[in-house]
Description:
The structure holds 2 protein chains of 2 kinds.
Chain A: H1 9-29, H2 34-51, H3 61-80, H4 101-117, H5 122-133, H6 138-145, H7 149-171
Helix pairs in contact in A: 1-2, 1-3, 2-3, 3-6, 4-7, 5-6, 5-7, 6-7
Chain B: H1 16-27, H2 32-42, H3 71-76, H4 89-95, H5 114-118, H6 157-173, H7 175-189, H8 195-208, H9 212-225, H10 231-239
Amino acid sequence: xxxxxxxxxxxxxTIFREHAPLVWRALRRLGVREADVEDLSQEVFVIVHRxxxxxxxxxxxxxxxxxxxxxxxxxxxxxxxxxxxxxxxxLPDERHSAPQIEELEREQxxxxxxxxxxxLDDDKRAVFVLYEIEELEMPEVAEAxxxxxxxxxxxxxxxxxxxxxxxxxxxxGTDG
Amino acid sequence: MADPPRRLSDDPEAPAxxxxxxxxxxxxxxxxxxxxALAAKLGPLLGPGGxxxxxxxxxxxxxxxxxxxxxxxxxxxxxxxxxxxxxGIAAVVIATRPSDAPPRPPPPPVEAPAAAxxxxxxxxxxxxxxxxxxxxxxxxxxxxxxxxxxxxxETDPAAELALIREAQAALxxxxxxxxxxxxxxxxxxxxxxxxxxxxxxxxxALHRLGRDADARARAERFRAQWPxxxxxxxxxxxxxx
Lengths: 176, 241
């Protein structure tokens, strides 16, 4: 177990560099609006910096950071009465570089994914995102969420059922 | 439950649209510019230069979404492109806060820090608001000098973040309040972790109050202090430069 010390800026910068893309992506799939994801990512790393000296290394660092992401996203919605982003079918705006077909298709697929994820409650969504998208192992998911492994499994199976049904409904054209 | 379940993206029985959507979700990563902006927000926590601009923390090819499994392995990795030889101001302040110096309770009157003393006198502000800017954290006292009664700043990142957010939120509706909050940040946190953010708020507020000369002077001091900051672009936009 590491003694509690303040992180040097170099070690923290390394952590930031290696995890910032993951934090960003996880927050987006956890329902944070694109307009808010920068602020929320900042909040995650401020917490990481503050709590890093107490990180005991019992889980992978990335697992620990994912847990912070889940809590920050959840708290954000509660305190700000922010609703999760409910993606529409509109195409992304033209912020992105070239409107390449592949990228547009990915954007549309992501929009579809977010609509399917929107049917989940916070707990199930977190499990689904961490396992299916972030590709953590299930014990890591349980660790990040602070829940028993069996509970994580239950949530995963329930989430899969709902997401699959919703996706089938969406691509079946029955969505208004 | 002994075996890990196959992921949906690898499950041929899962709807193709869902598998594709999951793959697309995995592929969504922030751009270098977005990471630069984030790094700039974290400022001194990341080390000199605020980590932004000029291929800051997020920029560059070394940003990879690779899994990292232990603190030790991270610390052992070479750190490139960030100018991390020196230790960030805020990190030092946080790490070296004297044990006999509890965080100062908010906000008693504080003597102006050195840099603010040296800078141009602030012009009158609405409602008598004082806005020390570009506050520099007190350096170690030179040998042979008695320790000055240097202001001891608060080091609670969450409180600092909340204050900056409050100031940012006030900008549109009440720039005077935003300016007051920026001043409060300077008094309570010095440069802190979000000193650059604070200065951008102050510059924006001054501009909104029609005090362009003050805004530009402050922007100049910002550029001098943080020449590589990613916030420079925002300041240019605010001032229409």
